Amino acid sequence: MSEPTAEPATDAPEPFAPDSFLVVPARSFEDLRVGEVFRAPSRTLTDAHAAAFQTVSADNHPVHYDAEWARRHGHFAPVVHGLQVLAFTAPGATLFPHFIGEVFISFLELSCSFLKEVHSGDTLYPALTVTALDPDGDKGVVTTAATVHNQRGELVLSGRHKYLLRRG
């Protein structure tokens, strides 16, 4: 029988540390580059998505749920809520917040234009593209172009987001 040794096994696994359980390696403001694209997974909208958003938003305009009303007013089908389409550009729908998680301070502003109608059955392809990096002391502002295309390659939403990050 051999005596136990006080030396740890060389093939022992590293202890688990929840703080280092990252989806992607963390980056700083200085690591971001103009032109980088952060895509969200494509999503085909259904009537259930529209109904759920209608419930949450309390927007009960008939253009969003009444097919006959929509047709009488020039739409071929009920129109998905514009704010629902905008929600697909949320940074958390992409990997962007995973890259900047430790340096993120706040979501400063957003703007957008709704360019084409979206209907149940459309597939949306959202993306955020870094368009400007403006350092300001120990902070920096990241500006992104927010875009959503449909399955026909049409740009249905175009906008801008700004985020405040810690530098250094």
TrEMBL record:
Please give the Gene3D superfamilies that the UniProt record associates with this protein: Hotdog Thioesterase
Q: Which Pfam families match?
A: MaoC_dehydratas (PF01575)
What family does the database annotate? Belongs to the enoyl-CoA hydratase/isomerase family.
Give the MaoC-like domain ranges: 34-145
Q: Which organism is it from?
A: Streptomyces achromogenes
Name recorded for this polypeptide: MaoC family dehydratase
Origin: domain of life = Bacteria
SUPFAM superfamilies given in the database record: Thioesterase/thiol ester dehydrase-isomerase
